[in-house]
């Protein structure tokens, strides 16, 4: 099973990328994870039919994935533009539906007290519109996230580790049955 990891933050010290790494380290043996950068040129609808090569590669990466995990910050109470731009590109043209039926786990992490909850729900809303199979539970919204990692970005919170393990089970359930019943 191949799982593509997307971070809504591009910076190397990102809490969300640290969360993705912690998640990947807990992957079951039959799963191969690969982080894929969401950095793409700005969307231009005039280029939909003939998109830049990096957009075609991104769509191929999603097409070849059995599941996708998105970890994102919240920017101004919504989804960061760089991630929305990636989703917009990969959702077009409309008859090439790489997100359709794709099992997707959404996670958000923030130094704030809400754990990026608004971005979390905005993302689920967008992905639901694209007919992705979004994992409903557990809802991983990591608040005060900087307290959960050491200076090297390693997760230091056993409760969060257990939650990530639950999230793997939920993602695998959705991937194999298409019907999450937790
Ligand atoms: C443009 C911008 C807007 C932000 N808006 C929010 C916000 O609405 N809610 C929130 O919890 N944090 C907000 N933050 C703080 C981010 O959560 C914080 O920078 C976080 O560390 C970014 O995630 P990262 O560590 O994965 O890069 C914002 C940060 C930036 C740069």
Please provide a written account of the structure:
By secondary structure, the protein is an alpha/beta fold. It has one domain (2-177): Rossmann fold (3-Layer(aba) Sandwich). The chain has five helices and six strands; from the N terminus they run βαβαβαβαββα. Strands 1, 2, 3, 4, 5 and 6 form a six-stranded parallel beta sheet that branches. Helix 4 links the parallel strand 4 (103-109) and strand 5 (133-134). It is globular and about 45 Å long. The relative contact order is 0.18. Flavin mononucleotide binds next to helix 1.
Could you name the key traits of this structure?
182 residues; alpha/beta; Rossmann fold; six-stranded parallel beta sheet; 6 strands; 16% strand; binds flavin mononucleotide
